[in-house]
TrEMBL record:
CDD domains xref list: SLC6sbd_Tyt1-Like (cd10336)
PROSITE patterns, per the entry: NA_NEUROTRAN_SYMP_3
Key words of the record: Membrane, Transmembrane, Transmembrane helix, Transport
Protein name as annotated: Sodium-dependent transporter
Cellular compartment(s): Membrane
Membrane topology: Multi-pass membrane protein
NCBIfam families in UniProt: Na_transp (NF037979)
Stored InterPro entries: Na/ntran_symport, SNS_sf, YocR/YhdH-like
Gene Ontology terms: cellular component: membrane
Transmembrane segments: 12-29, 41-60, 93-117, 145-163, 175-195, 215-237, 249-274, 310-335, 355-380, 386-403, 423-445
Length: 450
C-alpha cells in the first residue's frame, strides 16, 4: 500500500527512476566526447574513481535528507534545521533549488523537442513526406514550439499520475527500452568501417594524462553532474523511498548503474563518430577537439545514418528514440521537484499542480525559443555552471552540519541496523562535512575561471 504522499513500491523501481534521472542527454553525448578529448580510458578510470569519491557522498546527502524529512526540498531543508537562521537559509536554498530545476527543465524541453522532431523524421522519409521531413529537421520557431510542447505534455502526463503509477511505472518501462536500444545500436555500429579506430580511442588509455589537472577537474565535474545532483531531484526521490531500504547500499547501486550506462553510451558514440569520419565527415573542431553537443548529434551522426542506405532510417529512428527516452527519464525527475513542493506547500491536487507548473515552465521554454541563443545560453550557464555546484555544496553542508548526528545515524539504521560498524559511517559523515564541499568548490571555481 502506498503512503499518502506516494512511495516507490520496490527497490528496482527506485533504482531505475534514479538512474533514469541521472542518465540524460548530457550523459549520452557529453561523457563520451569528454572521454575522447581527455586521454580515452585514462579519463574513464579517473571518472569512475571520482564518481565514488565525490558524486556518491553528495548523492547520499540528498537521499538521507529526503528520506528523513519525507518531504519536498523546501520543507525538508527547513525542517531539519536547528534554529531560525538555518531554517530560513534551508528554506531559501530549497526554493532556489526549485527555481533552478524548473529553469533546467525549460531549456531541456527545447533540446528534447529537437530529439523528438528528429525521431519522427525517418517516419516522414518512409512515407515520402519530403516537406514534413525538411520541417522536422530544420531549426525553426514553429518546429521547436510544437515539438517542445509535445514533449512537455508527455512529462506532465507522467508526473500527474503520481509516484507508483507515473514515475515508477514509466521508469521501469523506459529504462529497459533505453538499454536494449543502446546495446543493439552498439552491436550494429561496431560492424561498420572506422568503428575500431573509435573503440581504440575510447578504450586504450593514455596514462601520461591521468595526472593532468584539466582532466581531473573535467572528470570531477562529469561525475558530479552525471548523477543529477544539486537541484534536489535525488532528495525528492529519496523522500519516496521505503524506510526498509539500505541507503548506503542503494546509493552504491545507483552510482554504479549511472556510471555504467555512461560508459556503455561511449561504446556507441565514439565508434559512431569515427565511422562518420570514415565516410568523410569532419569530426574535429578547429582546436583539434572532438565535436560535441548539438553539433555532434545533428551534423556528424546524420552522415553516419546516410552512409548506411535504407537501414540508416531504422538506425536513425532507434538512435533518436534512445535520445528521447533519455530526455523523458531525466525530465520527469526535474518536474517532480517543483510539483512536489506545490502539492505539499499549498495542498493543491497533483494533476492540477503538474499541469499548472508544467505550463509555466513551457512558457519559459517558449521565451527561450523566441530569444535564442542569447537567453538559451544564459539560462544554461546560470543553472549548470553556477547554480548546481553551489546547491550541491549546500546539500552536503546541511547533511553534514545541520542534520543532527543522532538523527542521521537513526535514519541510516532504518534499513541497515549495523551501519555504524561499517566503513560508510566511519568515513562519510566527516567526508561530506569537509572534503566533498571543497572538491565541489574546486570544480566550480575552475569552471567559472574557464
Amino acid at each position: 500500500m502506498s503512503a499518502p504522499r506516494g512511495q516507490f513500491s520496490s527497490k528496482l523501481g527506485f533504482i531505475l527512476a534514479a538512474a533514469g534521472s541521472a542518465v540524460g542527454l548530457g550523459n549520452i553525448w557529453g561523457f563520451p566526447t569528454q572521454t575522447a578529448s581527455n586521454g580515452g580510458a585514462a579519463f574513464v578510470v579517473v571518472y569512475f574513481v571520482l564518481a565514488f569519491l565525490l558524486a556518491y557522498p553528495a548523492l547520499m546527502a540528498e537521499l538521507i535528507i529526503g528520506r528523513h524529512a519525507r518531504a519536498n526540498v523546501v520543507t525538508a531543508l527547513g525542517s531539519i534545521s536547528r534554529n531560525r537562521l538555518t531554517h530560513w537559509i534551508g528554506t531559501g536554498v530549497g526554493y532556489y533549488g526549485v527555481i533552478i530545476a524548473s529553469l533546467i527543465l525549460s531549456f531541456y524541453t527545447v533540446v528534447a523537442g529537437w530529439m523528438l522532431a528528429h525521431w519522427f523524421d525517418p517516419i516522414a522519409d518512409v512515407l515520402g513526406m519530403s516537406a514534413a521531413s525538411e520541417w522536422l529537421t530544420t531549426n525553426s520557431v514553429s518546429r521547436n514550439l510544437l515539438a517542445g510542447g509535445l514533449f512537455a505534455l508527455v512529462n506532465m502526463w507522467i508526473i500527474a499520475r503520481g509516484i507508483e503509477n507515473g514515475i515508477e511505472r514509466w521508469s521501469t518501462r523506459l529504462m529497459p527500452m533505453l538499454l536494449a536500444i543502446l546495446v543493439l545500436l552498439i552491436i550494429y555500429v561496431l560492424t561498420r568501417p572506422g568503428a575500431m579506430e573509435g573503440l581504440t580511442v575510447y578504450l586504450v588509455p593514455d596514462w601520461s594524462r591521468v595526472t593532468e589537472p584539466g582532466l581531473i577537474i573535467d572528470a570531477l565535474g562529469q561525475a558530479f553532474f552525471s548523477l543529477s545532483l544539486g537541484v534536489g531531484t535525488m532528495l525528492v526521490y529519496g523522500s519516496y523511498l521505503s524506510k526498509q531500504e539500505n541507503l548506503p547500499g542503494i546509493g552504491v547501486i545507483v552510482t554504479l548503474v549511472d556510471t555504467s550506462i555512461a560508459f556503455i553510451a561511449g561504446l556507441l558514440i565514439i565508434p559512431s563518430i569515427y565511422v562518420a569520419k570514415h565516410y568523410g565527415t569532419k569530426i574535429f573542431t578547429e582546436t583539434g577537439e572532438l565535436i560535441a553537443g548539438p553539433d555532434l548529434i545533428f551534423q556528424v551522426l546524420p552522415t553516419l545514418f546516410e552512409s548506411m542506405g535504407a537501414i540508416g532510417l531504422l538506425v536513425a529512428f532507434a538512435f533518436f528514440a534512445l535520445m528521447t527516452i533519455a530526455a523523458v527519464t531525466s525530465s520527469i525527475s526535474m518536474l517532480e521537484v517543483p510539483v512536489s513542493t506545490a502539492v505539499e506547500q499549498t495542498g493543491m491536487s497533483r494533476p492540477r499542480a503538474t499541469y499548472l507548473i508544467g505550463s509555466i515552465i513551457f512558457a519559459i521554454s517558449s521565451l527561450l525559443i523566441f530569444n535564442f541563443p542569447a537567453l538559451f545560453v544564459f539560462v544554461i550557464d546560470l543553472t549548470t555552471k553556477y547554480s548546481e555546484p553551489l546547491l550541491g555544496v549546500a546539500f552536503c553542508l546541511f547533511a553534514g552540519w545541520v542534520l543532527h548526528r543522532d538523527k542521521l545515524l537513526a535514519e541510516l539504521r532504518e534499513g541497515s541496523p549495523q551501519v555504524e560498524k561499517g566503513l560508510f559511517w566511519k568515513i562519510w559523515p566527516a567526508y561530506v562535512r569537509v572534503f566533498c564541499p571543497i572538491l565541489i568548490l574546486i570544480t566550480f571555481f575552475h569552471s567559472v575561471s574557464g
